[in-house]
Amino acid sequence: MTSKQLASLFSALIPEQGFLLTLLHGLLGNEYMLITTITVILATTFSSQIGHLRGAQEIGTFAMHIFFAVIGVPASISLIVTKTPLLLAFCLIIVVKNMAFSFIFGKLLHFDLEEIIIASNANVGGPTTAAAMAASRNWSSLIVPAVLVGTLGYVLGNYYGVFAGTLLGLE
């Protein structure tokens, strides 16, 4: 609610003229960017208070299960292979490059294999799949870092996406 109202206000106040104003309009005039920004600011500023909320683990686990169900129900491997083989190949190339980069630089920087795997998973699948993998492998010390790294990727990806869209949208 707050982000919708703020986005409407910023959209009305910031004209889309030139790259910087268009970028600012895209960042502040988008309710989803504001939700991301407000949530990160609140979670960072009030981390100790939010960390003591009761039931957060249970609600988070329940939400992850809902996420997996919603994503998994309409999935059809045969449909993906027959209708979008180039997209599947593109995704495979991205995942292989991500894993190669993660393993090479992770080993050079002396990270544990488990940490590298979770970081790579968080990069490709986001916080939910990385946390689920860490939990399923009994790497309980990596569950919170998996969620944090995956969430950081979402946050940075949102800002980068708006920046790239603005950059490519200018004539």
How would you sum up this structure, described in words?
With 171 residues, this protein is mainly α. The chain has nine helices and no strands. The longest helix is centred in the last third of the chain and has 27 residues, at 143-169. The protein is globular, with a radius of gyration of 19 Å.
Number of strands: 0
What is the overall shape? globular
Radius of gyration: 19 Å
**H/E order of the elements?**
HHHHHHHHH
- How far is it from the N-terminal to the C-terminal residue, by CA? 33 Å
| Structural class category | mainly alpha
Helix content: over 70%
Strand content: under 5%
User: Tally the helices: what do you get?
Assistant: 9
Main β sheet profile: none
What's the average pLDDT? 86
